[in-house]
Amino acid sequence: MRVLAAMSGGVDSAVAAARAAEAGHDVTGVHLALSPSPQQHRLGARGCCTVEDSRDAARAADVIGIPFYVWAMAEEFGRDVVDDFVAEYAAGRTPNPCLRCNEKIKFEAVLDRALALGFDAVVTGHHARLEQTPDGPKLRRSVDEGKDQSYVLAVLRPDQLAHAMFPLGDSTKAEVRAEAARRGLGVAEKPDSHDICFIPDGDTAGFLKRTLGEAPGDIVDAATGEVLGSHDGAYAYTVGQRRGLKLGRPAPDGKPRYVLDISPVENTVRVGPAEALDVDEVIATRPVWTSGARSTSFECVAQLRAHGQTFAATVTPADEGWTVRLHAPARGVAAGQAVVLYEPTADGIGDTVIGSATIETASREWVAANYTATTVGGTTVYDVTA
């Protein structure tokens, strides 16, 4: 097959391209230039936007022995990822830019262009397994649980997955690095980046402040409405946040407070105890059925954030989205994140992706009606009562 290898400049994408070439595919490497000013972005880490990354990708392609090009996609990235990121925070939500980049850039803009140019598939260094079956593609978790990226790939439609390749899904990250070294790839020990690539200093609050401007408001107690402190912009907070609140007085019980809710209309951040973060019912919209749509309620495993805990769940689909009822409460669920559904497995983690949707609201009403909470050795245990 003619394959386009998306090469970020990191070790994963380099080894993925090398494996595709070794498997006999006609591989062409491409680096996505996503920043209008790449020289301003950080050095020394795997990203998508730096001059160093572009050079590392070119050197890797030379070692592999494949053609290499750079595609300028800063306009698309700015519109579909950066602008979306800012708008979501301004609306009091918590976006996932990596998920949006996979959806809008790597597997929409890039895949569409690749197919138009006669390529059969796009290969990336994502840690996930993909099986092309007679019933359609099956997206599964990586064997390396700590590096699994099926969550951020669950926004992809079956027709997109049909033209995707993820060669690293059966390998651990340590095995990938060892292989890169054997192949003579200079990125073998290049560190991973855990930052947002378009915020080079890692200061998300500062980036939003520079972009949206200051918007002072109150931090209030969610139960009493009492003003406890102030903020420079509600957009700088996210549900579940504990640090950086700078409250004027401690809670009566001496326990820390957490962000429970963000209201951009009132420009208010509401805080309260950790227990108030527990939710068990999630309403999600914009569903993507990765492995076939379903019209009736079904049992599954739900994951509510990348590398987060998984929960047994009952999902009721509707035209506009899903109602996801968790069989045990989850804490700190933020609107704007994705809920990803997996086929149940014996270990309770889930393996094959069913689909994903965007979280709109979360509540704790169902848990109160259906569960009894008891404390055992300082740990709260939830038992099903209905």
TrEMBL record:
Pfam families: tRNA_Me_trans, tRNA_Me_trans_C, tRNA_Me_trans_M. The record marks 126, 337 as: Interaction with tRNA. It is found in: Cytoplasm. The keyword Transferase applies. Residues 147-149 are annotated as: Interaction with tRNA. Residues 207-272 form the tRNA-specific 2-thiouridylase MnmA-like central domain. Residues 280-359 form the tRNA-specific 2-thiouridylase MnmA-like C-terminal domain. Catalyzes the 2-thiolation of uridine at the wobble position (U34) of tRNA, leading to the formation of s(2)U34. PANTHER family: MITOCHONDRIAL TRNA-SPECIFIC 2-THIOURIDYLASE 1, TRNA 5-METHYLAMINOMETHYL-2-THIOURIDYLATE -METHYLTRANSFERASE. Belongs to the MnmA/TRMU family. This is tRNA-specific 2-thiouridylase MnmA. The lineage of its organism: Bacteria, Bacillati, Actinomycetota, Actinomycetes, Cryptosporangiales.
